[in-house]
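PROTEIN DESIGN WORKSHEET
SECTION A - STRUCTURE
LENGTH: 386
TOKENS:
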């Protein structure tokens, strides 16, 4: 006898790159997603129905993200996709989910200024990471900034926000350097030489993927001292520290919603469960954590509404809360972004982050905030180009 629809598994798409320039972080996001799906199923699934992941590897290529998202939605019986890291891949998948009326759950920090009835945003918006980091740096490191990053929309927009903060506070951006995402390691040496020549107080870094490893290693090889000139990042995580080696990372700063070193009971319990599943030494990070909790939030909503149809499921997700490793998170019912717990950490000798500053409350997302100050500012600066 054929199974009733209420007995059939619920298939969900999983789109994280296991190859390509951002695979270090995206592999951790894939691992977290599968771990959370396993927990959901061990707890009885979705009212007795198994949650089944359908995974594809886009290889870091936005065209592949779009093609595979279309395949998931049109051929694989999927209505919900967990996936994407870079903004270029997110926008590629959004075209597919909007075309097929699917739902994308996105677990990475991003530049804001996006709304879709087919998306839920679980990473930090600029007011939850850039603004907090800017306040810290201007108070604790100095006023002369050098901006670097991978050459696409998110790093450029993060630069704009930080540059505005620096100018308002009377600081100065003394240089900029952007490189292509796939730039070879040798290309980072001229950039670091320019930084060494100009001697900024802090380097604001928005490189992603393999570029993080290349830049931090070149910085260390140039003999630059993080105690006097730290790199400050919105992306560099425990996964990147492991990839580059602790020696190149020690002393540098990251703003994140989550660090593996958090001592909360919720985080310790989650890490212990993950350790039992993964075995051996585990490494988690901000994107791992968001990929983990978004699965549980969707599972809760699926249990409540009984269907994965996005027109019914998305309203059930809005306003949802979950005790995530970072703290209790909430999906904002108006803008579909997440209330998160910003923190600032510095890499210690064990490869983990010493938490320097931590919000005592969850911070509401303001993804459409044009400026963090009332005045629009245009500040010309020297520019390094390669």
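SECTION B - SEQUENCE
RESIDUE ASSIGNMENT:
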């Amino acid at each position: 006898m054929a199974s009733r629809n209420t007995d059939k598994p619920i298939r969900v798409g999983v789109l994280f790159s296991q190859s390509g320039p951002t695979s270090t972080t995206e592999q951790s996001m894939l691992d977290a997603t599968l771990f959370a799906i396993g927990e959901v199923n061990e707890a009885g699934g979705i009212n007795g129905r198994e949650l089944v992941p359908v995974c594809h590897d886009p290889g870091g290529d936005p065209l592949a993200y779009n093609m595979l998202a279309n395949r998931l939605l049109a051929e694989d019986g999927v209505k919900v996709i967990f996936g994407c890291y870079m903004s270029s891949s997110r926008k590629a998948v959004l075209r597919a989910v909007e075309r097929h009326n699917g739902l994308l759950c996105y677990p990475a920090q991003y530049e804001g200024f996006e709304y879709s009835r087919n998306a839920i945003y679980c990473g930090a918006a600029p007011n939850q990471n850039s603004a907090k980091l800017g306040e810290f740096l201007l108070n604790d490191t100095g006023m002369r900034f050098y901006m670097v990053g991978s050459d696409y929309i998110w790093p450029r927009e993060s630069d704009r926000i930080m540059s505005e903060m620096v100018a308002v506070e009377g600081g100065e951006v003394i240089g900029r350097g952007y490189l292509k995402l796939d730039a070879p390691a040798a290309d980072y040496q001229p950039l670091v030489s320019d930084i060494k020549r100009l001697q900024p107080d802090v380097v604001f870094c928005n490189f992603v993927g393999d570029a993080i490893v290349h830049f931090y290693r070149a910085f260390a090889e140039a003999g630059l001292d993080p105690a006097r000139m730290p790199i400050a990042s919105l992306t560099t995580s425990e996964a990147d520290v492991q990839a580059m080696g602790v020696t190149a990372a020690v002393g540098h700063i990251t703003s994140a919603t989550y660090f593996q070193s958090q001592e909360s009971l919720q985080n310790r319990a989650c890490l212990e469960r993950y350790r039992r599943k993964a075995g051996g030494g585990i490494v988690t990070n901000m994107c791992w954590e968001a990929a983990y909790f978004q699965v549980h939030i969707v599972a809760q909503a699926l249990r409540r509404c009984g269907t994965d149809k996005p027109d019914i499921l998305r309203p059930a997700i809005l306003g949802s809360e979950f005790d995530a490793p970072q703290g209790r998170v909430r999906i904002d019912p108006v803008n579909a972004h997440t209330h998160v717990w910003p923190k600032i950490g510095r890499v210690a000798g064990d490869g983990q982050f010493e938490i320097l500053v931590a919000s005592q409350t969850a911070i509401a997302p303001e993804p459409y905030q044009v400026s963090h100050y009332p005045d629009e500012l245009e500040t010309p600066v020297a520019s390094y180009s390669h």
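SECTION C - NOTES
Residues 23-42 form the longest helix (20 residues).
Confidence is low (pLDDT under 50) at residues 374-386.
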